[in-house]
Write a structure and sequence with these properties.
5-stranded antiparallel β-sheet, Nuclear Transport Factor 2, Chain: A, 3 domains, alpha+beta, elongated, single chain, 9 helices, L,D-transpeptidase catalytic domain-like
Length: about 325
């Protein structure tokens, strides 16, 4: 870790005389650990993210992970594939699709509705029943936000059309497309790096870089508070109606975190493959996902993290996490 910090410092020293003087003085007096703390604070500033986002296409939000995005407009019964070329998402192909027989957001098993939300593709089924065409992609419905709101049901797929029989012009909740188009889609995506955005109408595009910079700065301020055990600052990022994926509400969560923060020992927390995507058909609600590396003397974690946040008074409020 210190080798990485030293490389960053050497680069900064070569690009800014004022910064060089400040950082050398800081190092002379306080040592390397204090410089790391200073840089963690810099990551919590909107100015850094304003500059960083200039090179990114924020058409659908911000993502370091996804190389393909599928957007589905349920009202128009269309789906579009966008693929990343350098830092820009470009339209590759549009498809006519069949969606659920009943309009609106899915809430329960058997309601014949296609869900509205953000989903990943969790599995490819190579040889489903012939009714579903040559292959199918299983989606992550219900996601954590769905579960928080009591949505249920399962088996929402992107699949093809019957190879041996006719079918109605709607589904029980899945998204169905022509078989040749489905096979073309299969050749053009990596399911581990594909995000599916389903909306009632056209998927919102050209998300504000300013708002994304605000969210990312907040995310790293939350991380800063976590690393340096600033419990009051850390808890200020949580909504009063917070409920964790396992049902833990804010009161118990607060007590749990206070006990954890009282433990002594240096923490390392690194975020990679960050995505900040506005939630379809919801105002000021975003899904934040990232890969997290967490190391402390008593615990280690290396895996995926998901936050659902609402923007309130220019600050993220986490209302569920996993």
């Amino acid at each position: 870790m210190h080798k990485i910090i030293l490389k960053i410092i050497l680069f900064m020293l070569s690009t800014s005389t004022l910064f060089a003087n400040n950082i050398l003085t800081d190092y002379r007096i306080h040592g390397l650990n204090n410089i790391e703390k200073t840089m963690d604070l810099e990551l919590a500033k909107e100015e850094y993210w304003d500059k960083y986002l200039q090179k990114y296409d924020t058409t659908f939000g911000f993502t370091e992970k996804y190389s393909a995005i599928l957007t589905c407009d349920k009202n128009e019964s269309t789906m579009h594939l966008y693929k990343k070329n350098a830092n820009n998402f470009q339209l590759v192909k549009g498809y006519n699709v069949f969606v659920g027989e009943v309009k609106g957001d899915k809430t329960k098993e058997g309601d014949l509705k296609t869900p509205t939300g953000l989903y990943t593709l969790t599995k490819k089924i190579a040889h489903p029943d012939s009714f579903y065409g040559p292959l199918a992609f299983v989606t992550s419905y219900p996601n954590e936000y769905d579960k928080l709101r009591g949505r249920n049901g399962h088996g929402i797929w992107i699949h093809g059309l019957p190879t041996k029989e006719s079918r109605d012009d709607f589904t029980k909740g899945c998204i169905a497309i022509g078989n040749s188009s489905l096979e073309c889609l299969d050749r053009n995506i990596n399911i581990k790096k594909t995000l599916l955005i389903i909306n009632e109408t056209k998927v919102t595009q050209n998300i504000s870089k300013k708002e994304l910079a605000l969210i990312l700065a907040n995310l790293y301020e939350w991380r800063y508070a976590w690393i340096y055990s600033k419990i009051d600052l850390y808890l200020s990022f949580y909504a009063t109606n917070f409920k964790r994926f396992d049902g833990m509400e804010l009161k118990k969560f607060t007590s749990y975190k206070k006990r954890i923060f009282q433990k002594h020992g240096r923490k390392t927390i690194i975020f990679n493959n960050i995505s900040v995507i506005p939630y379809p058909n919801k105002q000021n609600i975003y899904q934040i996902t990232f890969d997290e590396i967490y190391k402390s003397p008593s615990f280690q974690f290396n895996g995926k993290k998901s936050l659902m946040v609402k923007i309130k008074n220019d600050k993220i409020k986490i209302f569920t996490e996993r």
